[in-house]
Design a protein that fits this description.
About 35% of the residues lie in helices and about 25% in strands. The chain has about 80 residues and is an alpha+beta fold. A three-stranded antiparallel beta sheet has the order 2-3-4. Helix 2 crosses helix 3 (about 65-75). The protein is globular and about 35 Å long. The relative contact order is 0.26.
């Protein structure tokens, strides 16, 4: 479980891409991909060494929501903390 001081980053072979045709942000990985809503996309764009608290503060998002998303993606092996 991640904490406010965790610094999540995309796992190896996981990429965040924007599909210009559909106007969607995708999280791509070898086994498939996920279409992200705008909130999830904004959070993942900030997973560049910032802490979870810095991400939540910068996006003015509830820290509990940010941590919940990050925990799910860590559990699926798509993020590393």
């Amino acid at each position: 479980m991640l904490g406010v001081d965790s610094r999540p980053q995309l796992a190896r072979k996981v990429r965040l891409r924007h599909d210009h045709v559909r106007g969607e942000t995708l999280l791509l990985f070898p086994e498939g991909g996920l279409r992200l809503n705008s909130s999830a996309a904004d959070i993942l764009k900030c997973c560049d060494g910032r802490t979870a608290l810095e991400i939540a503060t910068g996006l003015e998002a509830p820290i509990a929501d940010v941590l919940e998303l990050l925990d799910v993606l860590v559990d699926r092996g798509l993020l590393r903390a």
